[in-house]
């Protein structure tokens, strides 16, 4: 079972998005697929005014995903999620779908309250 846990505030939060940025952020999050999450550092989705980046792994081995506003220097993050390596242990499609749904839930929650979310556990 996977758990989604609210953590602290996003350190480099962008602030309030306008309607177009919010629309593009929702589209970008929805475009994430399971394989995207486990790529190396870089942009995995680029949607209009925003992008979803893999920032790499934390010291604890969690994959760091961030939704960021394009063209902004400095505070550009509108959502952030840390994904435990165990979430990758999805052996069948239904588990991968479940894992991606939880990851998207974490990013949407983060976008709504400017907190970092952590996804842990094993997909079952």
Describe the structure.
- This protein is of the alpha+beta class.
- The chain has one domain.
- It is 30% helix and 35% strand.
- Strands 1-6-5-4-3-2 form a six-stranded mixed β-sheet.
- The mean pLDDT is 96.
Summary tags:
about 120 residues, alpha+beta, 3 helices, about 30% helix
Give me the oligomer status.
Answer: single chain
Structural class: alpha+beta
Strand elements, count:
6
How much helix is in the residues? 25-40%
Identify the strand order in the major beta sheet: 1-6-5-4-3-2
Radius of gyration: 13 Å
Number of domains: 1
Shape: globular
Largest sheet: 6 strands, mixed
Count of runs of 4 or more consecutive helical residues: 3
Mean pLDDT: 96
In short:
It contains 3 helices and 6 strands. The protein is α+β, with helices and mostly antiparallel strands and 124 residues long. It has one domain (2-121).
Question: How are the secondary structure elements laid out?
Answer:
Blueprint lengths: L1 E8 L9 H12 L3 H4 L4 E6 L2 E8 L5 E7 L7 E7 L9 H21 L1 E7 L3
């Amino acid at each position: 079972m996977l758990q989604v846990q609210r953590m602290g505030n996003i350190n480099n939060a962008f602030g309030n998005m306008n309607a177009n940025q919010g629309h593009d952020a929702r589209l970008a999050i929805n475009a994430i697929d399971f394989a995207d999450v486990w790529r190396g550092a870089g942009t995995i989705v680029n949607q209009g005014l925003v992008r979803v980046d893999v920032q790499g792994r934390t010291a604890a081995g969690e994959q760091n995903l961030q939704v960021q506003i394009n063209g902004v220097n400095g505070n550009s993050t509108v959502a952030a999620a840390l994904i435990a390596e165990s979430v990758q242990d999805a052996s069948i499609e239904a588990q991968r779908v479940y894992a991606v749904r939880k990851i998207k839930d974490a990013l949407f929650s983060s976008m709504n309250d400017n907190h970092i979310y952590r996804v842990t556990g094993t997909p079952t």
